[in-house]
Amino acid sequence: MFTNNPFAELSAYIAPGVIQTFIVVMFILVVAGTIIDVIHKKSGKYFFENWQKSKSKANKQVGGGEVASMAVKTLASEVLMSSEFCTARRRIAHLIGCMVLLLMLLRPLSWYSNILLPLLRRPTSGRLCGTSGR
Fold first, then answer.
1. Taking the CA atoms of the chain, what radius of gyration do you get in angstroms?
2. Do the domain assignments include residue 33?
């Protein structure tokens, strides 16, 4: 799984420049499609107006430290512990799914590590960074 790079096999049939261009074009189209969808559904306007309403109804101003504290608490309880799921079986299934997704997303790093790591370990790379390279 970690030793097979499908892009290397694809480059035998399609030029790497074409593959890179395709990926860049697809990224731009996804971003453009998302923006068009937000404009079409007017969800951005709805959320902005809702945020303004909730801000005007606020009883007190919340400082940056309190916001950071709430964000950390939410991250710890809702995201890391999956507390939105009621049963332990659902939590475990959700966390396993998240770990598999994370591994799938990090998998391409192993393909490029054989290319990037030797370049970073070369003695000349230290000189480029302003150190002696030793």
1. 23
2. yes
Reported as a single tens digit per residue, the pLDDT across 108-122 is: 776 666 665 565 555
Predicted confidence at residue 126, as pLDDT, reads: 47
Residue whose token pair is 């969808």: 37
Closest CA to 106 of 2, 20, 26, 11: 2
Nearest to 2 by CA among 115, 112, 113, 107: 107
- The DSSP code for 134 is -
Cα 78 from Cα 92, distance rounded (Å): 14
CA distances in angstroms from 56 to 46, 48, 61, listed in the order given: 15, 12, 10
Residue bearing tokens 């079986």: 89
Q: What pLDDT is attached to residue 106? A: 76
Domain tally, the chain? 2
Q: Are residues 19 and 51 in the same domain?
A: yes
What residue numbers bound the domain in which 34 lies?
1-55
- The more confident residue out of 107 and 124 is 107
Distance, CA of 39 to CA of 59 (rounded, Å) = 32
For residue 78, being part of any structural domain is answered with yes
